[in-house]
Specification:
Number of strands: 18
Number of domains: 3
Structural class: alpha+beta
CATH topology of the largest domain: Pseudouridine synthase
Helix content: 10-25%
Oligomer: single chain
CATH class of the largest domain: Alpha Beta
Largest sheet: 9 strands, mixed
CATH superfamily of the largest domain: Pseudouridine synthase
């Protein structure tokens, strides 16, 4: 019955775990895939700087509407170079500071304790944050950006592990919340150690628990003939409890009406749920309200 009422999804629907190459923007990757696949509705869930590499999650079709429900924590491998500071806080920028002082591993490890937990972090001047409707990097290029314009933002650093070091170079493994600027960590680490530092390499190796660098794929290898082999169903990675409903309930939800569900979901009151049909296809996202009423929030149809 529902098949005559519901137009179920676009031809391609899901996510791609892309390994972004260096020297291109995240938008460039989206444009490349849009061209090779002939699909207009494509987007990414979180920008990687042009010089950075690694996991870039791409949404295809209506999956682009689900970005807000994806796991937000990320893991990076970062190389910090001490003794050099740049205007971009990374290797692509203009050198504005130099220092002969290179801190020891013990000094670095001790100071890294200050970066763990919820911290206030000032974004880099050359970043995509909006300042009165204009991107910060555009203002910075025109020397119209004041340091007072860059307000500190709260982020959370779950862990930082010190890796290999050589001369002035140090590798860090950083597990952090969405919105964290690794460039800012490099810059601030240099400052707190009474020297200067910048980010010289960056690779995102993990998003959530299931999107890994080991299973990512180059965007150049994706085409309309093989995309179905690489698509990840949203219900495989969304961090939300699943609820299956029958055909009559689907009709109600699709028309924007709340439905009553089993009291076994009481522990999920005021939480979002994945709504699935009896074939485990994702219908959309719903909010479980008081009295076990499921309120539709986002329905995924073309």
């Amino acid at each position: 019955m529902t098949s005559t009422i519901i137009n179920f999804m676009l031809d391609f629907f899901g996510f791609l775990n892309i390994n972004k190459p260096a020297d291109c923007t995240s938008h460039d990757v989206v444009a490349m895939l849009r061209k090779s696949l002939g699909i207009k509705k494509i987007g990414h869930s979180g920008t990687l700087d042009p010089f950075a590499t690694g996991v870039l999650l791409i949404g295809i079709g209506n999956a682009t509407r689900l970005f807000e429900y994806l796991p937000s924590d990320k893991v990076y491998l970062a190389e910090v170079t001490f003794g050099i500071g740049t205007d971009t806080d990374d290797i692509t920028g203009k050198v504005i500071k130099k220092s002969e002082y290179i801190p020891s591993i013990n000094e670095i490890t001790e100071k890294l304790k200050h970066f763990i937990g919820k911290i206030k972090q000032k974004p880099p001047a050359f970043s995509a944050i909006n300042i009165n409707g204009t991107r910060a990097y555009k203002l910075a290029r025109e020397n119209q950006l004041s340091t007072d314009d860059l307000k500190k933002r709260e982020v959370e650093i779950y862990s930082i592990t010190v890796g290999a070091s050589q001369d002035r170079y140090l590798q860090l493994k950083i597990h952090c919340s969405s919105g964290t600027y690794i460039r800012s960590i490099a810059r601030d680490l240099g400052n707190i150690l009474n020297t200067c530092a910048m980010l010289s390499k960056l690779e995102r190796i993990k998003i959530g628990n299931k999107l890994l660098i080991e299973t990512s794929i180059s965007p150049e290898l994706i085409n309309s003939s093989n995309i179905s082999k690489h698509l990840i169903l949203p219900q495989e990675i969304l961090g939300l409890e699943k609820l299956s409903i029958d055909s009559e309930q689907i009709i109600e939800i699709v028309h924007g009406r709340e439905i009553k569900i089993s009291s076994s979901f009481m522990t999920s009151i005021n939480k979002n749920l994945q709504i699935l049909d009896n074939n485990d296809r994702l219908i959309g996202i719903g909010l479980l309200t008081e009295n076990c009423m499921l309120k539709p929030k986002k329905i995924l149809y073309a």
